[in-house]
Amino acid sequence: SEKERSPDILSFQGLGASRLYGDDPDLMSLKPLAREVLFFIVDRKRVEREQLLENFWPHHPPGRQVSNLHTALYSLRRLLGKDSIVHDGASYAINPDLNTEYDVARFGRAAAVAEGLPPGDPRRMFALTEAIHSYAGPFLPEFNNEWVVDRRRFLELRYLDLLSLHAQEALVRDQASRAVQTLREALEIDPLRDDTNLHYLEALGRL
């Protein structure tokens, strides 16, 4: 049966792995499909029912689609609490009254702060370092649905942009070795990116 009460804090990790943390050890027992459905809802904040059906059961007849969705939602509510996922007729969302944390959202906020500061601002290097450290790896690496792959690439590109900005800021501060270290991290992810290679050559030249 569905659990009456949700955990006091629900923490979702989508970077580097798909994990759930709460005061209930059963959270890790979610089947992969139910876990992916959960992250789809968490990542998009509010999801239309048709989006769920089309993304997860595109080749099933309508009746089976709806049945599969109800099965996935039941398994989520059974573990997270019966009021954990709210439904307002056409869309689903995590209950806004729950105390939740999501590492992808945290990365996005840190990146926005860093990107909003002008070059040479005393706070910029710290903000860029914070944003880089909040990226723990590829988004949901164990899943390969189209929506996951697109989201993974978007977040990876943003991370690479932050590494590039971090290296440029290090060069402004005459910290060439720090810039080289940052750019090596970027080149490990995408060795063919032109701007990274140009900055890398510049940083090596400054050493």
Write the layout of secondary structure elements.
Elements: E1 10-13, E2 19-21, H1 32-44, E3 46-48, H2 49-56, H3 62-80, E4 85-87, E5 91-94, E6 100-102, H4 103-115, H5 124-133, H6 146-172, H7 176-189, H8 194-206
Parallel strand pairs: 1-6
Antiparallel strand pairs: 1-2, 3-5, 4-5
- Bulk shape: elongated
**Rg value:** 20 Å
Residue windows where pLDDT falls under 50 for at least 5 positions:
none
Order of strands in the sheet with the most strands?
A: 2-1-6
Task: Tell me the helix content.
Answer: 55-70%
Mean pLDDT: 90
Order of helices and strands: EEHEHHEEEHHHHH
| Largest beta-sheet characterization | 3 strands, mixed
Q: Distance between termini?
A: 64 Å
Structural class: mainly alpha
Q: Please count the helical segments.
A: 8
Proportion of residues in extended strands: 5-15%
Strand segment tally: 6
Features:
57% helix, 207 residues, three-stranded mixed beta sheet, 8 helices, mainly alpha
Can you put this structure into words, describing what you see?
The chain is mainly alpha-helical and 207 residues long. The strands form 2 sheets. The chain has a 3-stranded mixed beta sheet with strand order 2-1-6. A 3-stranded antiparallel beta sheet has the order 3-5-4. A hairpin with a 5-residue loop joins strand 1 and strand 2. Helix 4 packs antiparallel against helix 5, helix 5 runs antiparallel to helix 6 and helix 6 packs antiparallel against helix 7. The chain is elongated, with a radius of gyration of 20 Å. The relative contact order is 0.12.
